[in-house]
Predict the 3D structure of the following.
Amino acid sequence: MTDDSESLPPRQRVVRVPGSRRARLTPVPGSDPEPETSSGDEPGVTGGPRRPKGPKGPNDDQLLQDVPPHY
């Protein structure tokens, strides 16, 4: 029997997170584990809530501040 552990590429490992129900994987070798962030330069990507275009109505401020009850 030969030891092939040196010829195999490194693999992800499962790491237990204390106090959490879920485990997490170690990053894939050669990958960037940081999440992608938007710089705001892309069209259609905004950081805040969408505002309607056109004239402002009498109750627009109240409607934009309201939060649905399931939140």
In short: The chain has a mean pLDDT of 76. The two ends are 59 Å apart (CA to CA). The longest helix spans residues 60-65.
